[in-house]
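Input sequence (464 aa), recorded before submission:
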Amino acid sequence: MKSPKWSKKKRQLAVGAVLLGALAGGSARAADAAPPAEPAPDDLPSVLNSVPAFAPIVDFKKQLRDKGVNLQLNYIGEVLGAASGGKRQGAIYDGRMEFVLDADMEKIAGLTGGAIHANAYWIHGTGLSRYYLGNLLTASNIEALPTFRLYEAWYEQRAFDDRLSLRFGQLAADTEFFVSKYGALFINGTFGWPAFTGANLPSGGPGYPFATPGVRVKLGSDSDPVNILAAVFNGDPAGPCSDDAQRCNRYGTNVRLQDAPLAMQEVQYKYNQGKDDTGLAGTIKFGAFEHYGNFANLRYDTAGSPLGGLASNGVAGVLKGDYGFYGVLDQQIWKMGDEPGKGAALFVRVAGAPGDRNMVDFYVDGGVNFTGLVPGRPDDAFGVAVAYAHVSNWLRGYDIDSGAAVARRDETALELTYQYQIVSGWNVQPDFQYIFRPGGGVADANGARVRDAAVFGVRTTLNF
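Predicted structure, token format:
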């Protein structure tokens, strides 16, 4: 298939991204000659702290934080292209501006242990997976339909020396549950909120780009070796919808409380993470979810006949509830001297769910990260990761029963990435992905399986 011609707008966006990379290189040289800036007032890498001209803004942010208010602005922009395979070939630009507000209620109103958090996104551009690849393991973790979208908005109250916390409001599960610290380096969306939950839960569940009303309880502080999390969310962020779920809840403001609930629990065990610990740091997590709604049988109708067969009544059987289990391992495997976070580390996540109601009944991902290994580049990181999603045998059986040209089986994504720090708070990240059997192995217009896809791209991340 020939690659489609780029529109004028796409050409301009692509050129803009290239120029941004060139400007980044020039800024790096200027920053090397500048005196060191003050530490970031919000303890986060920030471009503002690397450019002396932004000193008044840094001072203003510090004054706000001293009064209990922290403001953050982050931008991610990327060019991604399908060089071969997928539904078609071509390139896109997409971006996401994030606005963050955190408020310390002890400083503002004298409420010890109280905090408010809210963030919202301006999402723009075109999704490579949606329009070019047609795959399950979304090529970008910022891909979503263009819109202004409210994400999280919650209040948290901590007590007993921060060993108990209660959080309620509009919550996202992917900020705390099923999270790998080392998976965050990678661009493919499945290394964040994985396809295991995104493909199985109604509207993709409470993970990007959706948050939903919920309550979360946490036992244990960040310094304790054992933490226990439990949460209840509204079970469908978009609600009943005959269109795309992101269009049905376009702005993230559908405050739904009437849907069947989704419960999640997770136990976390951390070791060798104290200041005086000399061993290799690691974290082990075990979790589960239970959804209390109704789910369609993926292969059989209400009469027990194959849905794809000629004798089917065309109405899928109803199954009560859904559930799944998962485990996460984050493990440092080598560290450089006494420098925290420098060295090599690996991550592994495994999950399973019943195949009669879940598109992905088995999922596993993992990878290796290296940080600070490149001479003269102490903050650069690079890594390789792979994810595998097995398509349920029930769904595969439906394909066979219906006489589909190709029966879906599984999808695998391989990613290699390098994160290059221009200055603190500004990174450029070349990336390569290879998608095996996009969509689990669906057929194209000619009845042949959609070919494996090679994806090249570069991302720019700026934190202010």
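Checked by second reader. The two ends are 42 Å apart (CA to CA).
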